[in-house]
Amino acid sequence: MKKRKNITTEEKWQYDAFISYRHTQPDSFVAQTLHRCLESFKLPRSVVRQKGEESGGGQIKTRIHRVFRDREELPLVSNLADPITEALEHSEYLIVICSPRLNESIWCRKEIETFIQMHDREHVLAVLAEGEPETSFPEELLYREEEEHRPDGSVVYHKIPVEPLAADVRGRTRREMRRKIKSELLRLAAPMFDCNYDDLKQRHREQRMRRVILTSVSASVLCLLIGVVSAAAALKIQRQSDGGGGFRQTDCLEEFAGAL
Question: Using CA of residue 21, residue 22, residue 28, residue 30, what is the dihedral sign?
């Protein structure tokens, strides 16, 4: 088995992740939605500052730049197509969209096997799109082979059960699945940014609350300004009506400036 490719600070992965999935529904929908969400995800600023301090000012990963998702079924050949193999080799993570249909695809299972051979299984992430784990997760994700060297020189392989890191996005409708994908996105992003999931979830919640508060304050200030302008204009019109004379826009602006 090949050792995982060592990427130096000067060298970057061509793809942050490779998405492996069946070209059927809802697998394709999950893959497409997840693809968009991953490439638009940004690490919260508080996490960026913390990781920057920990790295001593070194370069850190703040967003997911490129995700590989093949859009066509593979040709009927005995081996994976060269572009697919190359993409697997240059991808930091493999994300597998799991459903009962995945086990029927020799190509998806070959992608998993190839990635593990090129890298390791610690960088394989599973997304449960439909069905139950025992019927949707392929054998390649549920077991690893361990060699046993016997005294007579023979080698026996044992299957050792493993529990893959998985996100559950199952839903009755696409709307529900889309909502779960956005919720479970942090579970996939955490290892990709070398972050603790609970910490990233908390920081993301704090960032979202700050945005909500900022939006609310901005909307309140805008409403207040509109109210002040409207009140000043109404007052000016009333004065002009009571005292005669024409209404000038400059008068309204002066009244508004005085009110502020």
Answer: negative
